[in-house]
Structures
1.
Amino acid sequence: MTPKERAQSVADHMWAADQASPWFGMELAEIDEGRAVLTLTVAAHHLNGHGICHGGVIFALADSAFAFACNSRNQSTVAQHNTITYISPAQPGDRLTASAREITLTGRSGLTDVTVTNQTGAVIAEFRGASRTLKGQVCSQEIET
Amino acid sequence: MTPKERAQSVADHMWAADQASPWFGMELAEIDEGRAVLTLTVAAHHLNGHGICHGGVIFALADSAFAFACNSRNQSTVAQHNTITYISPAQPGDRLTASAREITLTGRSGLTDVTVTNQTGAVIAEFRGASRTLKGQVCSQEIET
Amino acid sequence: MTPKERAQSVADHMWAADQASPWFGMELAEIDEGRAVLTLTVAAHHLNGHGICHGGVIFALADSAFAFACNSRNQSTVAQHNTITYISPAQPGDRLTASAREITLTGRSGLTDVTVTNQTGAVIAEFRGASRTLKGQVCSQEIET
Amino acid sequence: MTPKERAQSVADHMWAADQASPWFGMELAEIDEGRAVLTLTVAAHHLNGHGICHGGVIFALADSAFAFACNSRNQSTVAQHNTITYISPAQPGDRLTASAREITLTGRSGLTDVTVTNQTGAVIAEFRGASRTLKGQVCSQEIET
């Protein structure tokens, strides 16, 4: 099994157990070791009082991409400290893409950046997540590389 | 009109226009100038693949509390850079409370801290949001203090 | 030995070994369990190209206050992720005070806020530091409470 | 004048006025539009009570690189919210390099990432800075591209 295949197996396992990401309207588009891409189309129920996408929805999309990237080695990994910078508002109907890539992994501590763009490629937000690996695997079945 | 009455009027106006916060399951519990308290009960559709509340839901709750606090002077205000530190996981059925209080406001730049606790008072997350005031009011009707 | 006495013993030990904090021009003003206050007067060599105090000097002052607060239980503790928000510039001759107070400590993870003010009480910066406790003590001598 | 030549002119102007960066022991190694590289060798007076480089010194190095990158278009630009994640400690004698590159610039708001490495290429810290452009130029002389 290649690292990418293992990442795919873990992601399939996580996705099947994840009730929130589908509820938000997310789809998992790509997965690899230390990388994940998720998408979401901004719907009416995602809009805040200014008529633009609620920042929590944009954050959640980035956070799910971060989680799929962090857990891709089949080591249970959780978020510790996440930051988001809002660059441009996301409008109703926008097709958002969150691309996560791990930038460092030292011992149990990882750092993963996620860029959220819309259908024109404009940057909506930049997210940086600091993770910590726990004991235990995401997926107990044999999926070693 | 007192500052608290103005904050209530702005919040009523924002809440009526906000589709996302009710969709998440939030309720607005308290409002004052530079302060807001929102609550949410963790439901099955809020759970991630680890069976605990998705970080994006916790963030969104804090982010809404932040937004209600920031806009409480009836000046349109948006988030720029928000950070969240996860302290303890939120479990299914937990009743979460996000309490926002502005800590500084200098010119157009504000800083607001939000603590998210559960029904036992345990801290679930600490959120810090940096905001910027735009031109224009949240609510055009006359609600001056 | 009270918690405050232990904090003082640890701080004395740390200060004696710390070459950077005195080099910056810092002084340790107060110490208690989970709390520390440090001061620094802005000198000519602290100024950046805009003629105001270099942000790194303000950060360093807050970071030292954070470190003294974090280590006050005599458990070796290090910074993981620190954020600073600049509120007002610090001018030459300003007397800066950094007041650190631990806001959460859960297992090995702590969160400590530091407010930097000047001699008029104006807020210069707000700092938030996330720490992690390591194995080992700061000070090996017997200083149990 | 090319963008790189303008960046060099602005940097020369800033460096001549900057008392803090040389005092820290920094050197300016490279400059271009939206990019800057600074270096510093960890000296005895940079060490904290654990015998490793004080986090404020690492932050200051990254912060100076950030400032040179942000101001490279000759528009006065200041830091608003900076975050640093410490990856590995920096040891006495380490030769640190901070490489800053602007990742977004939208209106007056910019985001610049800085990676600090040592002489072996190991990552010491990751810094992310959010800036805001003010009215006015860094350097009043004619240096238009």
Note: The longest strand of chain A covers residues 95-106.
2.
Amino acid sequence: MIPNVLAERYASPALQDIWSAEGRIVLEREFWIAVMKAQRDLGLDIPAEAIAAYESCKDQVDTASIMERERVTRHDVKARIEEFNGLAGHEHVHKGMTSRDLTENVEQLQVFRSLQIIRDKSVATLARLSRRAQQWADLVITARTHNVAAQPTTFGKRLAMFGEEMLSAHAALQDLVDRYPVRGLKGAVGTQMDQLSLFDGDAAKVAELEKRVVAHLGMPAVWTNVGQVYPRSLDFRSVAALTDLASGPSSMAKTLRLMAGHETASEGFAPGQTGSSAMPHKMNSRSCERVNGFHVILKGHLAMASGLAGDQWNEGDVSCSVVRRVMLPDAFFAIDGLFETFLTILDQMDAYPAVIRRENTHYLPFLMTTTIMMEAVKAGVGRETAHKAIKEHAVATVNDLRAGKVSTNNLVERLAGDERIPLTIEELSGIVAAGESNAGAAAAQVQGFVENVNRLAEAYPAAAAYQPGSIL
Amino acid sequence: MIPNVLAERYASPALQDIWSAEGRIVLEREFWIAVMKAQRDLGLDIPAEAIAAYESCKDQVDTASIMERERVTRHDVKARIEEFNGLAGHEHVHKGMTSRDLTENVEQLQVFRSLQIIRDKSVATLARLSRRAQQWADLVITARTHNVAAQPTTFGKRLAMFGEEMLSAHAALQDLVDRYPVRGLKGAVGTQMDQLSLFDGDAAKVAELEKRVVAHLGMPAVWTNVGQVYPRSLDFRSVAALTDLASGPSSMAKTLRLMAGHETASEGFAPGQTGSSAMPHKMNSRSCERVNGFHVILKGHLAMASGLAGDQWNEGDVSCSVVRRVMLPDAFFAIDGLFETFLTILDQMDAYPAVIRRENTHYLPFLMTTTIMMEAVKAGVGRETAHKAIKEHAVATVNDLRAGKVSTNNLVERLAGDERIPLTIEELSGIVAAGESNAGAAAAQVQGFVENVNRLAEAYPAAAAYQPGSIL
Amino acid sequence: MIPNVLAERYASPALQDIWSAEGRIVLEREFWIAVMKAQRDLGLDIPAEAIAAYESCKDQVDTASIMERERVTRHDVKARIEEFNGLAGHEHVHKGMTSRDLTENVEQLQVFRSLQIIRDKSVATLARLSRRAQQWADLVITARTHNVAAQPTTFGKRLAMFGEEMLSAHAALQDLVDRYPVRGLKGAVGTQMDQLSLFDGDAAKVAELEKRVVAHLGMPAVWTNVGQVYPRSLDFRSVAALTDLASGPSSMAKTLRLMAGHETASEGFAPGQTGSSAMPHKMNSRSCERVNGFHVILKGHLAMASGLAGDQWNEGDVSCSVVRRVMLPDAFFAIDGLFETFLTILDQMDAYPAVIRRENTHYLPFLMTTTIMMEAVKAGVGRETAHKAIKEHAVATVNDLRAGKVSTNNLVERLAGDERIPLTIEELSGIVAAGESNAGAAAAQVQGFVENVNRLAEAYPAAAAYQPGSIL
Amino acid sequence: MIPNVLAERYASPALQDIWSAEGRIVLEREFWIAVMKAQRDLGLDIPAEAIAAYESCKDQVDTASIMERERVTRHDVKARIEEFNGLAGHEHVHKGMTSRDLTENVEQLQVFRSLQIIRDKSVATLARLSRRAQQWADLVITARTHNVAAQPTTFGKRLAMFGEEMLSAHAALQDLVDRYPVRGLKGAVGTQMDQLSLFDGDAAKVAELEKRVVAHLGMPAVWTNVGQVYPRSLDFRSVAALTDLASGPSSMAKTLRLMAGHETASEGFAPGQTGSSAMPHKMNSRSCERVNGFHVILKGHLAMASGLAGDQWNEGDVSCSVVRRVMLPDAFFAIDGLFETFLTILDQMDAYPAVIRRENTHYLPFLMTTTIMMEAVKAGVGRETAHKAIKEHAVATVNDLRAGKVSTNNLVERLAGDERIPLTIEELSGIVAAGESNAGAAAAQVQGFVENVNRLAEAYPAAAAYQPGSIL
């Protein structure tokens, strides 16, 4: 059999369980039992021992037997009904229900539970990111815009930046979870006609039945006006939330790949691991690259979801069916694999302060030219004169560095030797040295991020303590 | 000049104003003034008369003059600074700011105000949809699944179904508006270094400055940890919310196009309009088709947004610039055009009860076969016998209808003539006739939708009362 | 294990074989053998019996054993080398090769063979479509634009229209196959350094080696300048060609779904199959809906492919790896499933001439109004007078039909009774009746399509004769 | 008026002309004139002086006048007919034509001419890329995989790699141009009914008419079986070809952005330009970033195109209309802007050999470890012993470099001092030095690329000589 590569290679057992054939069948059976219990409480003639019999066998899943039944009935839901009835020795499941009353609700339950798991993993990720941001809150690095040196920041601040992006997407995901509406028992075209028939037109009972079933599912809301299916824009919203949530990790992974190229940081190695045997110096950012790959995959699933949203004809059909079979589990496997990989990166990543310092030293004189100009002006020289002198020397220095005429940045010496600049080499060096430890509000900003994450981690302590499995 | 086709042909003046060159320049100037006022309050030496001078000329926008300055400076923000200074006769704007301190915040303001306008238009749409759903709450139609007749529902329920999809997306959009975070004054790489220099390192003053500026912008939140730019996943989230919101209208437009094919409903005509002169009978669903077109456009903008999210290198760069210049205004123009069109459809659409009744009559005997079987069993025949007889006659009837052997659905007569079915033709006809007015919980469901929309319309009365402009 | 749902439920064995773990390992081994043979011919010391030993065991694939080796080596290619060496009792494979010299070429072989299979299936599809177009070449139907009646055409012409769309995409796919370039043996960064070392810098031998290996692969071209990887825009081009090819079938499937709603045609049933047991009249277009679903899936894969194209950093990395593991097999499984489904539709579909005739009769008087006007003018009335009269009656008729005031289209009677129109009811009825069999050039156009397909089928007779497997 | 930002800021005049309102109107009038000439030749009564009158006024485009007419007629094509007739003083245009007979063909002409311009710009780009590849064919750089040092290559080879990717996409685009089929004169639903009426059913004349009109358009092929519209998968194919073509430039732009971060190369400056005034050292890769931005935009247009392909209902409608109004011109403006930008990069880019050498020196000892091991084995030491010693020293060296314990790569000294390695420091240094100039087949591969481009440039000399306009 050809396996689902996302499930088998990357996703965690929790997600695999939800989306496996066996896991789904158990969810369906639990759903049927919840319906039967509610129907019985509301007056339908379903014996208690029948329900007990269904409950006692609900975990006996024999997919081969079900498949054999399907070959006879040519109808998948009917085959699963017969199998469950056969196991229990009763015929009480699926009363007044159409196939979609079962499948829509159970698929939404799969989505809802998956969303919660991913929400929890984003908490685990934020907790780790917060620790890393604190660890390096004061490690000054050369911030880059357009991928070239710009101003000092700290490595912790850089991480907090990607972390805060995730925090924002996390809140949006939580909004989705808090509002997530389930279809409920609505019948073939959404009018509840069959449940109404079953309860002789008693609308209050039908409403109470649905209320109880939704309570079983544990979802916070229920649709009132639907057709055969719930609106597929809800699936779109879910996949969009996952894509959104993957963005912070993806940007951070790209930035780590860039830093690895400069040897200022790396995603690290597992304990005992070294580079490739042929090239032991090589620390390839394979996991970061994989994170970026997962994001591309999610964007593909988003395109699938957007192909379904807004394309409902009348009360619905199954043109979405094959798409959702692929897109829903695979999007969750992909984001799950992304988090498993990203958590491992966060556990193993490393910074190289010596190389960072070398880079700072190389660029700092350039980064401090605006401060040097201000001090020169204070010391009496005209603004235009100072600007002209500094620009001349800065351009000459960068050109000489690129041409190999000088090997270290000697802008300070050049400026000290220029009469137009009324500052000594000690004063100039002092300005540059002060720059090395001045990253503005970076440390305080990191602290703000850490506090926000702490609040979240306190609200979800188990999620925050999650340990990823080992990755390929 | 080649115009922006979405702006010129489809978008409303409110959106055009926000995204026009002139509108943007005024927003920038108001932003600079807000910064100066706060800086002055916090101790910077900015004379009150200077601020007054800026305020008095802020609406004098001369794009040609600015463009001339840009040709000299080769820097767009610098040109706009010089123009504003020139008009005011002062040089106090942009203190301690980098270009992105201006442009990011102003672009977010454009997005935020556009989101609010679209939020309001969705309220206007829901209000109309609710009225239409009430109007046709009891008009029984033949619900279709797989585009073929399935069970009765009502036209009002069908509309409420698409309306409730929109209502759900509306709530998600409102969540986005309620949380929308602005970048604030963060400097070249996000560390606020330059504002800190300006205030001699006084972090409290810098924080207070930002707080006041954000208050001016009227946005509910502010980022703490950003780089040169705010995370582009926020743009993604905004465009995804628009795409989501367009889904209900898009599905309803497709369904109206289908109904027009059956002549059960149409998007209607403007007063005085008829079909094409060559074919006056033709009522083309041009506006519904356009709604679907706008949705496709939005999905394209979503693909652009998804190409930016998760692609930040270090503290940022301008690889997103050209994309955002296209995607942000155009996505808002597209959704705005969609709502202008859809509002017009809602105002002009029509249903054709006589044709609907003809369709119901044609299909109803088929739709009531399950009820007929139940009654036959009550009357004493075995379940299997009844099922077999009904199936035989139903298949024969549908085949004869398709083959043209009969011209009306005579299933009732066939069943009445079969000894296996112990029901008279009066009884059978009665069952079918009862079906015509039984759409289950449809009317009550519509009422639920109406009440939800009423609450929303009460909260946003001006939005609910919006009248669309005339469309092409 | 969680299966790949596209492979297991929808794809044919031919595609499954290419993309299975076992199938891939055999392809790799055959590739290694081809390299060894060429290396030996060019002077490397590889004994003939070693090659014979490898050949004799190449089909013994034990994935469990390979996985066990991978757990030790932590390197997938190394594990597969050791396994093959172990089976053969020699150590000659992979000389002068890097992992990508193996994997890129073998993955391209999988793509290339899959492209050929899909090319062949499109021939099979075109052959069937051509037969159906001929069968119904003269069956006049009411063509629809904007989903409403427009002018007569024939059902065969409608099918030929979708067929010609496919034919155009087929030619583009063939262009891709004809040009498809393989990466070849290029070494770690594309400079062939390691093969050059192996042959002591003999560039001619290295070139000859690559030529022979490419000949083994059977691909028409080879890249010269590549890095570690071949350009991912080639994958994009392949997936785009598949998406393109799916468009004709997808449009036809949508149109069949529309026709099923009018009961003028249907995708049919398998022999012995009827509608759902609860609603035997219902002929759901499940297979057509599935075809549309596959197209949505392909567009998602296209989004994945477009996320890789143009994103190569330097000589390449593995950020594409997880994406290609999902996208490449799944895109081929999806298009394969689409064709298996669509071929079945073509075999089982049906048209309902009696219903079609009813529809023609209903609309034809409207469709012939321009002809009626021309004849009225010839008979002496002024053009404007005739136009005014016809428009009045046409609008009145369509309104009365929709309002249920008349049950059949009596435009002809109305016009006959109007003094302004100097034509008798016989003349008017004659014009309308002539319209029923006048579909312009439709029949000749169909013939043109049939001839083009015939040429293709003659060039690929085996492909044209392909029979699809049975579908779910 | 809000301008089209892609047209105004980035696209070249040639593209603007094709897609402007005025340009389109002239194309339409030329089309009508071509139809009239052919109709006259085939016997219709159209006076020669009428055609002459139309020809003499075809360039007098008054969009305001046309818009005024449209307000009266409420039909855009009718307004343009009346305007042209009014100018010429005749009424002979548009005989037997429907609106789509005009608009589809003219829009295809816009697409086709745009495709040719882009094809030509890709030739211009390849010619420049070829010169740059030759210029740096022997400049050895450190190739990177996973963004870290891997093996030597040359800068010319790296450029040729991206060039060959473009060459492959160029050939695919040429295939599209060579096959591009136009819709032709097919009437309202594709059956040519109206032209057949016009020529009294003479199919040969109608065929000849179409043949002449297509010859006027200059397109290589014509559809036979279409509906109201030509298949939108052809638009998809066109936009996909543009996206494909942008991939090589996009990957090269990303790689230049990476190299700028290492100061080994840059996109350069316009003559006289320096870095930002605040930071004169900063050479921002703004143009490369913009190239990547254009690619993202194209992927968005591709998503729009894919939303239209496979979504034709019956003989077609206008759900594609608003999408095509945006997507078609904008995709061409985007690719045109991309090429204008990329050509400028190619003209201004620079490499920094001194920095490149520094990088080579830093990494080369690592890159040559496999050669060192081979030589050590030749000198008598066991393979395992040599491997162990080299690995120990390589890992220690990289760690010491990262930790700042050493400032230059002293692996050679370390190995020379290890008794296990029987090579002198002179021998070891010699191996490393030889590596510096050994980039395998790189130079020969570049030559292969250059020859292919030369052939192309000879075939399209004017295209190859194209000079880009100045960019913002």
Note: The first strand of chain B starts at residue 140 and ends at 145.
3.
Amino acid sequence: MKRTLGPSEKLYPMPVPLIVGMADGAVDVLAAAWVGTVCGAPPTIAVGLRKVRRTLEFIEASGELTINIPTAAMAAVVDYCGTVSGRTTDKFAATGLTLLPGETVRTPIIQECPYNMECRVASALDVGEYRVLLVEVVGTRADEAVLTADGKLVDVGKLDPLVYIPGTREYRGLGPKVADAYSIGRSIG
Amino acid sequence: MKRTLGPSEKLYPMPVPLIVGMADGAVDVLAAAWVGTVCGAPPTIAVGLRKVRRTLEFIEASGELTINIPTAAMAAVVDYCGTVSGRTTDKFAATGLTLLPGETVRTPIIQECPYNMECRVASALDVGEYRVLLVEVVGTRADEAVLTADGKLVDVGKLDPLVYIPGTREYRGLGPKVADAYSIGRSIG
């Protein structure tokens, strides 16, 4: 039996990356779950941020950002970055997160996140109180420790990415593999 | 040590909903991982679809779609819906998926998916070979069996949503809860 729950933005599951912006030598970081891939060529991600965010100011000033995937073990740091403002707190000093220079953008990546995406803003539009950015991913990096044996792909079991669940407001880890994509569907039809 | 992997749209983790479009009495379904929430008010989701998709034709003709969250047990059905075309195959006949009428849109939802979002297209733009839709969620429904005890929220442990992992192309389930959001971060600073 279906129950009606009303309009909602909740989607299952959600990623919860740390997003870095830098302008005029100042850098800030936030955690955001409203992030999703929308295109493969060029590689493009949609990011929704409340307009009041200080990191957004930096992103719009520089036209750049980095998207950094945290591990499940980083839940406390991510939660902190998502719930305090860089206007009143130095989140890097508080969390111990450290930065590495970008390779394709001037904005740094977060060293402690094992997978990092360097991005440039391609377009932006306003939706309600949110700024929706479409950002092109111009480079990615990963810790060697989270790669597959051939070094070409991320081994998600090693990456152990943090997952966000809206509504009940939980952080979760990933569960075991249930099937190979582009393969298991052949059992049908 | 970080290794450079080049530009990529891969994000971890990704949802992998079944998306339904209907026009002129014809209905089709596809599986898409390029879906992400971008705004809470109005509740808005970004969806990236290749322009050749038949379901996209229906969505653009009607201005509506439904986004249906499958369980981990539905991996084969989802994979099938993501890899064959409705131009040559009746995906509903092949998979046994059944439809329920929409409550707020004319487009139906998928009964077997325990969480369903009814949406209207708010805007659209082209990015490369993809059409990026920003869609407003005008209604959601869930199976009573996947709700929390108070009936107000989805209990994600009961929902058991399917998760997509790009690159290694895996379907996974969710793992255990690691922390409460808007709470664990208070242990810092």
Note: Chain B has one domain: 14-187.
